[in-house]
Structure formats: C-alpha cells, structure tokens
Amino acid sequence: MSPTRNKAGGPNYKGHYQQSQITLMNERQKIVELNTETIRLTNEIEAIKSDYRRLMQDNLKTMKKEEELILGNKEMFKWTIIMALTTIAVLIFAILK
C-alpha cells in the first residue's frame, strides 16, 4: 500500500500508520479469538479424556465382576457334579445293600 499524499504533496505516513494500527488491532483480535478457541478445545479434549478414563475403569470393574461370576459358576457346577455323583453313589449303595 503506497502512502497517500499530504497537503504539501509529500507522503501521508499518518494515514498509512493509522491503517497499520487498525490492521494490527484486527490481527490481535484474531489471535485472542484463536487463543480462546484453543482453550475451549483443550478443555473439551480434557473432558473427553476424563470420560474415557472413567469408562475404562467402569469397564475393568465390569470385567472383574464377570470374571467373578464365571468363577462362581464354575465352582457351583463343580459342587453340583460332586453332589450328583454322591447321590448316585448313595443310590447304588442303597440298591446293593
């Protein structure tokens, strides 16, 4: 941008300076807006990370409970088989006696 001319015919640097100041203020405003958006997005990312960690902890707790249930079911099945075999043995013993 070439400077305009002043009353004496020389370059009007004052107008050029004012335009530069306006441009600088606009750029600063853009930077402030970008920084604000960056902070908002950073907070949103942190919230998502926190939710993810919480969900993973809940998932681990659920997996542990499922594992306990499976082990409990195996234990119950084992004792059911033992009781069935004991009952059969008692019946066989009763029949043979």
What is the number of helical segments per DSSP (H or I, 4+ residues)? 1
Distance between the termini: 118 Å
What string gives the helices and strands in order?
Answer: EEH
Could you tell me the number of beta strands? 2
Query: What does the radius of gyration come to?
Result: 41 Å
Residue ranges: pLDDT <50 for 5 or more in a row? Answer: none
Whole-number tally of structural domains: 1
Largest sheet report: 2 strands, antiparallel
Describe the structure.
- With 97 residues, the chain is mainly α.
- It has one domain (4-96).
- Helix content is 87%, strand content 4%.
- The protein is built from 1 helix and 2 strands; from the N terminus they run ββα.
- It has a two-stranded antiparallel ribbon with strand order 1-2.
- β1 and β2 form a beta hairpin.
- The longest helix has 84 residues, at 13-96.
Q: What's a quick, concise take on this entry?
A:
The chain is mainly alpha-helical and 97 residues long. The protein has one domain.
